[in-house]
Amino acid sequence: MEDLNKTFAEATASMDKAIDHLNHELAKLRTGKASPSLVADLVVEYYGSPVPISQVANLQVADARTIVIQPWERNMLGPIERSIINGNIGITPANDGEIIRLMIPPLTEERRKELVKKAKHAGEEAKVGARNARHKVLDHLKKAIKEGLPEDMGKRKEQEIQDLLNKYVAEVDKHVAAKEKEIMTV
User: Fold this and answer.
1) Which range marks the domain in which residue 72 is found?
2) pTM for this structure?
3) Please, is 21 exposed, middle or buried when counting C-beta atoms within 10 Å of its C-beta (0-12, 13-18, 19+)?
C-alpha cells in the first residue's frame, strides 16, 4: 500500500511538471506584446561556449512593443544579433552599437491562427505527459492486484487516478484557452 501511495505521489509530481512545461512553452508564444521570455531561451556563443542570452545581457521591456537587450560586453552585440536571427522568432534586431532593440510587429490574422495551433499542440503534449503518468500508476495497480491487493480497493484507486487526470486535463484546457484568448485579442 505504501508503494502504491509513492507511485501516486510520483504521478502527481509528473503531472505538475507537465503543467509547468506547458506554462513555459505558452510563455514563449508571441502575443504581440513585448516579453523577455521571447528571447530568454535563445543560446549565444560566448567565448566558445553556448550560454543563454540572459547570462550575457540584460533583457528589459522598454514599452509594450519593444524589448531592449543590453550586453554586458560590447563585443557580444554580433553574437546576440546572430542568435536572434538564427532563432527564427520572426523579429529583426536593430543594433545601435550599444544595445539591441527588438520591435515586436503586430500579429497578422494568419500568424495568430498559427500561434493558436502551437498553443493547442503544447496543450496536447502536456495531456500526453499526464496520461503517461496515469498509465504508470495503472500498471502498478494491476501488479499490486495480482500480488494480493483487494480488487475493490484497486478499482477505487483506479477511479482516484482517473479523477486526478481529469483535473489536470481541465487545467491544461484552461491554460490553453487563456492563451488562445490572449493571442486572438487584437
Assistant:
1) 36-103
2) 0.72
3) middle
